């Protein structure tokens, strides 16, 4: 019994290598673009989550604004240009305390130099001692607005807007709008 074995010819091997090389080169050009797209999408999602987290943190304070378990005097919400101050009786003692800052019942939020800042015990929207809620090396906040909408017979509604972009890639932007009702006002 004779066994007749034949392999690939040199021409066939060279053709197979040429086709494989073309496929490998096309894949090598496609993968970096795919990686850039995936990185950009991840950065976009991270930015959107950051914007929503900061917006919802401010909204929680607005929902509590005006709450008092006693006889509080003054306004529960003070709006200024790119600045918001809210008061609520966090320790349930019936008074809106403004000092010392560690025990204050007033919290301020403002946009300053591309960062959203907060301060407990904020007496006004200027001055020092404000803490950054956002990292300007990561994101730059372009817009922070709070609009009060009042309708007769209903609690006021506040519309919050926060827009930002990545510091390293300004083309990646995110914006969020959220409405909250101030039931205690």
Would you kindly provide a written description of the structure presented here, covering whatever features stand out?
The chain has 185 residues and is α+β, with helices and mostly antiparallel strands. The protein has one domain (42-181). Helix content is 30%, strand content 29%. It is built from one helix and eight strands. The chain has one helix at residues 10-64; strands at 77-80, 83-87, 106-112, 115-120, 131-132, 139-149, 157-166, 173-181. The strands form two sheets. Strands 1-2-3-4-5 form a five-stranded antiparallel β-sheet, with helices on one face. A three-stranded antiparallel β-sheet has the order 6-7-8, covered by helices on one side. Strand 3 and strand 4 (115-120) form a beta hairpin. The longest helix is centred in the N-terminal third of the chain and has 55 residues, at 10-64. The chain is rod-shaped and about 110 Å long. The termini are far apart. The mean pLDDT is 91.
Features:
three-stranded antiparallel β-sheet, five-stranded antiparallel β-sheet, 185 residues, alpha+beta
């Amino acid at each position: 019994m004779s066994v007749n074995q034949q392999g690939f010819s040199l021409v066939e091997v060279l053709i197979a290598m040429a086709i494989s090389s073309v496929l490998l080169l096309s894949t090598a050009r496609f993968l970096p673009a795919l990686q850039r797209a995936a990185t950009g999408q991840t950065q976009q999602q991270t930015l959107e989550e950051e914007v929503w987290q900061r917006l919802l943190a401010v909204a929680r304070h607005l929902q509590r604004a005006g709450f008092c378990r006693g006889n509080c005097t003054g306004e529960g919400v003070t709006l200024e240009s790119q600045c918001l101050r809210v008061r609520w009786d966090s320790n349930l003692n019936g008074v809106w305390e403004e000092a010392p800052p560690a025990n204050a019942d007033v919290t301020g939020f403002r946009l300053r130099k591309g960062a959203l800042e907060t301060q407990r015990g904020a007496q006004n929207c200027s001055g020092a001692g404000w803490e950054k809620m956002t990292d300007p090396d990561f994101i730059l906040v372009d817009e922070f607005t709070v609009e009060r909408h009042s309708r007769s017979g209903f609690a006021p509604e506040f519309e919050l807007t926060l827009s930002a972009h990545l510091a390293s890639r300004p083309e990646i932007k995110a914006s969020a709008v959220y409405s909250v009702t101030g039931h205690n006002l």
